[in-house]
Write a structure and sequence with these properties.
Largest sheet of chain B: 2 strands, antiparallel
Helix content of chain A: 40-55%
Shape of chain A: globular
Number of helices of chain B: 13
Strand content of chain A: 5-15%
Strand content of chain B: under 5%
Largest sheet of chain A: 5 strands, mixed
Shape of chain B: flat
Radius of gyration of chain A: 27 Å
Strand order of the largest sheet of chain A: 2-1-3-13-6
Largest interface: A-B, 40 and 37 residues
Structural class of chain A: alpha/beta
Number of helices of chain A: 19
Strand order of the largest sheet of chain B: 1-2
Number of strands of chain A: 14
Distance between the termini of chain B: 45 Å
Distance between the termini of chain A: 62 Å
Structural class of chain B: mainly alpha
Radius of gyration of chain B: 25 Å
Oligomer: heterodimer
Helix content of chain B: over 70%
Chain lengths: 435, 299
């Protein structure tokens, strides 16, 4: 139809074709000029999608724009797992954001690769003094500050009060009373409920995430004799190796027990469905304090308590959460600094904390929030300040974390521990030496 | 002379119209398909860290030499071939039988046809997530059914032995509707007069199937074999969502391995070299298709 129309047009009015094309081209150019933005480019911000963060952030962002009418934010959000790849692709394609959410352990990698800029010129020492040292440490690389913390996290273990009602167990509520792993294994074997065929009905322990450095590996690191032991340190950043650390006999022993808990004793599930603890399908649940807010809001009828995370020899919980960084390729770094100063101010972070319920990175906020002075949230705060350690830091974190995920998964699913660890030590060492 | 020029001018104008009409589609194909292929080929010759795009270093065919010395690449290639071969065999026969069933005009066929097509119309991401829950060895529906039937329960994605098979079953279910519909259209293209003549000659159902249906479905079957193989080589989404190539590399298909090297280990030059090799593997399959698809006869 279109073809015959053009054909007819060319035959009857072919002489006018050039003129028509010229007019068309002129119109197209005109449209391009009309469509071109007359105002300054918006500040492009990358964040993530997990509620309630977007809802709370949007309210803070709106206040920022009201206070800075010359700056318009263009916010893009992706799922947590896609955040790193989104940043990588934006850098590779030259479509960088101005400010982006930086997951704690990735800070060193972004800094090493020149993805984010140092922020110490924009913040005085007095301004940074209100942030917890562990948060500042996570935001730093080679002695310089590369991001500003939005929140912190630490893990503890929640328990279902109904499932433990008739067990006679006394659950520790303070760090000093925390269970050692052998006690915890005994309890897990006791409380896990199975039917006559051996099928598990209620699991001993579930976790906020499976096969992860943040959750699983904190138990393994606790088998280090002290904080200077190879197993606790996990990685040798001077010699760029995990050999002698990850494959240390204490590490192998802890990994073997971790496998046995899944395969031999069957007190931890090898795969988790969403909300198992929330629906009464597990007795204990390792999680960060963001879960507390969620339980209160979405599962008000669940009766739960909290206890310190059990450990082998040296207590440890992994810390770290999200920070704000400014992209090196941003053409609007001055506005990005204004943005980050605003969203990490005491007022904004207080609003964020009250909306999301996760540990704030500022001392003054923790001191002013009454819930952190009493159980159970005090337990999370105490865990952070007394036991909290960042995940092993390396500029090769993306590669390291991926290999550790695969290794933990293979071990949990039944692979031979020694040979699997040896295989991954070689792989991890290869990527560590790249930097 | 004047008349000849006018005819030539008319032909030129006709050609111009034709080019104008295909221009938008051609431009899109060139920009989003052809240019990236050549850009990938070019960049596969560089040491290219994805977070440092401005620091690319030319290293010739070093990435290709590295591929040929990489045992994980060959293991992934083997896994991909096994997956593709199994999918072709296990997908096409049931789809053909289903198409034969759906071809008959009987009550309820329309409903069955709709149900068969639903997985095809569903997003692969959604299918992967739902099947991941169904496969959950502890709380999943499949093991609950097996338990109710007092049958041994399976581990699915949590077993190095069962993960690839579980992936295969999911993808066969997902693609069944499309393959069946293509078979169905092939069956409906066979003229009824052939069957009528065979009936007059006293041929039974099996003879008709063997002597008429199968030979005349050759082009359709070859097309489906090739398209299923190519799709199998491109499988990524369910691996990314459910297994991340594990456990113990049992589902580490080639596209996932390329993704891992490019976007997790950030060795984009190396990932692109593997992508170029995959491109040529699929191209060879395409050439084979062109040769095999030539019909022995027309009807």
């Amino acid at each position: 139809m279109l073809s015959s129309y053009f054909h007819h047009y060319l035959i009857t009015k072919g002489g006018q074709m050039k003129r028509i094309l010229k007019v068309g081209a002129g119109l197209l150019l005109g449209l391009l000029f009309v469509a071109a933005p007359a105002t300054a480019a918006p500040l492009r911000v990358l964040s993530y999608t997990t509620e309630p963060v977007p809802r709370v952030q949007d309210a803070i962002f709106a206040k920022f724009m009201a206070a800075n009418p010359e700056i318009k934010l263009e916010v893009e959000r992706v799922p947590f797992n896609e955040l790193y790849r989104k940043i990588a692709v934006s850098v590779a394609s030259g479509t960088s954001y101005d400010a982006a959410y930086v997951d704690g352990p990735m800070t060193k990698s972004y800094a090493k690769n020149g993805i984010i800029i140092p922020l110490d010129p924009f913040f005085t020492k007095a301004e940074l003094a209100d942030f917890f040292p562990s948060s500042i440490e996570e935001c730093s690389a080679d002695g310089r500050l590369y991001a500003i913390p939005e929140r912190q996290s630490a893990t503890a273990v929640l328990y279902n009060k109904k499932h433990l009602a008739n067990t006679g167990l006394v659950i520790p509520e303070r760090l000093e009373k925390a269970w050692k792993m052998d006690q915890f294994v005994e309890v897990l074997n006791k409380v896990t409920q199975k039917d006559a065929s051996g099928r598990v009905l209620i699991w001993g322990l579930t976790q906020l995430s499976k096969y992860r450095l943040y959750s699983d590996y904190s138990f393994i690191r606790s088998n280090g004799a002290d904080k200077d032991s190879p197993v606790f340190k996990a990685i040798d950043n001077v010699n760029k190796t995990v050999s002698g650390y990850l494959d240390h006999p204490d590490s192998i022993a802890a990994l073997q027990l971790w496998q046995d808990l899944h395969q031999k004793y069957q007190v931890l599930p090898t795969q988790q469905s969403p909300d198992m603890f929330e629906n009464g399908l597990s007795v204990f649940h390792q999680c960060s304090d963001i879960t507390v807010g969620r339980l209160r809001k979405d599962f008000p009828n669940l009766e739960w308590g909290a206890m310190p995370q059990p450990y082998f020899k040296t207590p440890i919980v992994h810390t770290g959460s999200f920070h704000w960084g400014i992209m090196e390729k941003s053409k609007n770094q001055a506005d990005a600094v204004k943005f980050i100063r605003y969203v990490t101010s005491k007022e904004a972070l207080t609003e964020f904390h009250l909306g999301v319920g996760q540990l704030p990175p500022r001392k003054s906020i923790v001191e002013s929030v009454s819930s952190y002075k009493t159980y159970p949230q005090k337990l999370f705060a105490d865990s952070l300040f007394q036991w909290g350690v960042p995940r092993p830091g390396t500029p090769a974190y993306s590669e390291y974390e991926n290999f550790m995920f695969q290794m933990l998964k293979d071990i949990i699913l039944g692979a031979d521990v020694k040979t699997t660890v040896a295989d991954y030590v070689a792989k991890i060492d290869e990527v560590l030496k790249k930097y | 002379m004047g008349a000849r020029n006018r005819v030539r001018s008319l032909h030129r104008k006709k050609a111009l119209v034709a080019y104008l009409i295909i221009l938008p589609a051609a431009a899109l194909i060139i920009i989003f398909r052809v240019v990236p292929v050549f850009a990938a080929m070019l960049r596969s010759l560089y040491n290219y860290h994805i977070l440092k795009p401005n620091e690319m270093q030319f290293n010739g065919i070093a990435n290709y030499l590295k591929v040929f010395g990489d045992p994980v690449f060959f293991n992934s290639l083997k896994t991909t071939f096994v997956f593709a071969a199994a999918k072709v065999v296990l997908q096409l026969l049931p789809a053909f039988l289903l198409a034969l069933f759906l071809q008959r005009k009987r009550q309820g066929v329309g409903i069955v046809r709709t149900f068969v097509l639903i997985p095809t119309a569903t997003s692969l991401v959604v299918v992967s997530v739902i099947w991941g829950l169904l496969y959950d060895p502890n709380n999943g529906l499949f093991n609950s059914v097996l338990a109710a039937l007092r049958l041994p329960q399976l581990k699915y994605f949590t077993s190095a032995r069962q993960a690839l098979g579980s992936l295969l079953a999911m993808m066969i279910w997902k693609d069944m509707g499309f393959i069946t519909i293509i078979f169905l259209s092939g069956l409906q293209d066979i003229p009824a007069t052939f069957y009528e003549a065979a009936t007059v000659d006293g041929a039974g159902s099996l003879t008709k199937l063997w002597r008429i249906t199968l030979p005349l479905l050759k082009r359709t079957t070859v097309f489906l074999v090739i398209i299923t193989t190519i799709w199998s080589f491109q499988v990524f989404t369910p691996v990314y969502i459910n297994t991340k190539g594990g456990p113990q590399h049992s589902t580490n298909v080639l596209v996932y391995y390329i993704f891992e090297r490019g976007f997790i280990r950030m060795e984009m030059g190396y990932a692109l070299a593997m992508s170029v090799i995959l491109f040529f593997i699929i191209m060879v399959i395409g050439i084979v298709q062109n040769r095999l698809i030539r019909a022995d006869f027309e009807y």
